[in-house]
Enoyl-CoA hydratase
Amino acid sequence: MVATLDGYTGFKHFLISSPAEYVAHVETNRPEKLNAFIEAMWLELGQIFRKLSHDPNVRAVIFSAVGERAFTSGLDVHAASQGPILSQDGTSDGSRYATRVRRNIYEFQDSISAIEKCEKPVIVVMHGISIGLAIDMSCCADIRICSKDARFSVKEVDIGMAADIGTLSRLPKIVGNHSWVKDVCLSARFFGAEEAFAVGFVSKVLENKTQAIDAATKLATLIASKSPVAVQGTKEILNYSRDNSVEDGLRYTAIWNAAMLQSNDLKSAMLSGIKKTKPRFEKL
């Protein structure tokens, strides 16, 4: 049974619900425009994930989109053409114009990076058209699932730019095949669910969107049943270790666990294993 999530009803472009205990489901809600993003949407998305990050009633997050045709067709190009990046507004000085554009890009990047920085694990479910910003956002998620009809593209070169919201920085760390990464980024060609699975971009392909959402909900529910201290610590250490050396990762883990092993969750989990009971963990 899907329930509302307290404190998340004021968002215009997203639906937020709770399909299971401690699980939040965020859905992009602009299906009439193939869920293309305008500036108000990415700013709102950042607000949502920052709020979810610190919400003690949330331990895992599913991110998907309303409608059958598209997860997202990316940036709303028409709206962007009227926005601050492509409109100089009479600014003749190149340095001042570049400064304004750079600040706008940073704001966009920070909003999308909020998915990755969210303390709670995020499972993204992609379907149908999943291009441009779809890759940026999904690269920020912890787990990627898609339906068989998903069609992906790193589309930015086709609109005359290098992707600047995270794909070029994150995708090479997700997919070990740099030749493939450059293939899809330089050509902007489409690739399907099977190819995405084969290179490791997604971890699971389901028959349709409904089955993909169901699979994500089951996984999120399982994760949410674990100790939030353990789960959030695991995400933090994995992300830190991805970007640092093994030695640095080990040192960070030792420092992290020196504090977090003091949690009652450790005792509860161990006792439940011995007694064959299901543990209940306090909110974090």
Summary: The mean pLDDT is 94. The longest helix spans residues 94-117. The first strand starts at residue 3 and ends at 4. Residues 60 and 220 are 6 Å apart (CA to CA).
